[in-house]
Amino acid sequence: MHPVRIVEVGPRDGLQNEARILPPATRAQLVQMLAQAGLRHIEAGAFVSPRWVPQMRGSDEVLWLLLEQPGLHLSALVPNEQGMRSALACGCREVAVFAAASETFSQRNTNCSIDESLVRFEPVAALAREHGVSLRGYISCVVDCPYEGAIAPGRVADLCLKLQQLGCDEISLGDTTGAGTPRQIRQLVDACAAAVPLAMLAGHFHDTYGMAVANVLAALEAGITVFDASVSGLGGCPYSPGASGNLATEDLVYLLEGLGLPTGIDLDSLVDAGAWIDTVLERQTASRVARARLAARTVRV
Ligand code: HMG
Ligand code: MG
């Protein structure tokens, strides 16, 4: 199997969903701890409307504090030209736009239809090209939508093609509700890989139904080599009621290392970073691996 790249999305996808709003310095400290654990690709913030997602206010400060570190790829979410200009102003070199395979989710998440969202992304893509900034595209609800139910793989594949034509160099397939099962993920990846090169695709699985690790395995077998994950399983989605956290990075690292796929991440440092942010947020970890590691520490002689 090919080497795998992990994109840590906890500081954005995780924290955007927490009731407690953290100041930029605390968010930057989390990013710093994740980088020290060995993560090299970290989504550090979002330049979205603070009225819609107040948790991401001050993302420019998070990036300012951290951008100069060699070898560390920090990215941010942008919904439109306004967000893109803010990202560029603070020196961000990697951005991500986000669309949905479901019309209702698109309206709830971004107040526009799928086609309107693609129009909004055009100036973002033009600015990305002009400034040599890399552009990722997220697709939410790739298997299931909280409002519309099952989503046909063909709809996702069509959107993959449109995002590629827009100029995205990577497309992250988001199982937002976490309802997907390995067979569905396999069918989805095969359908999308018939529309765009397989090497462009990334897996973004939520663990609501406990399927995320199994879905990673199915996606790996289908040839995907980029996976998103969130430290301690932080997050969910504010527009997907009941969706629990993203796949925990600790669980992903444990799986990959167990498969003989080196990640370059020190699992114990990652567990420490997760335990630290859980204390700040006064929450329990959603990572089974983190729980097991922390329990093992108490009995080790
Ligand atoms: P809108 O209200 O339709 O936008 O929101 P608008 O263009 O009419 O502007 C309204 C106000 O928002 C204006 O301010 C704008 O300046 C401001 P006012 O004049 O009223 O004071 N505004 C902005 N402010 C800061 N940054 C911006 C920006 N744009 C407009 N970029 C909009 C449309 C898209 C902006 C809004 O719906 C929004 O910000 N949505 C973000 C939703 C979000 O962040 N969702 C979570 C991320 S997606 C996700 O988590 C899924 C993913 O993880 C994959 C998966 O798991 O499925 C990626
Ligand atoms: Mg997500």
TrEMBL record:
MF terms in GO: hydroxymethylglutaryl-CoA lyase activity; metal ion binding
- Which enzyme class? lyase
Recorded metabolic or biological pathway in which this protein acts: Metabolic intermediate metabolism; (S)-3-hydroxy-3-methylglutaryl-CoA degradation; acetoacetate from (S)-3-hydroxy-3-methylglutaryl-CoA: step 1/1
GO BP annotation list: ketone body biosynthetic process; L-leucine catabolic process
Q: Per UniProt, which keywords does this protein have?
A: Lyase, Metal-binding
EC number(s) on file: 4.1.3.4
Annotated protein name in UniProt? hydroxymethylglutaryl-CoA lyase
In which organism is this protein found? Kerstersia gyiorum
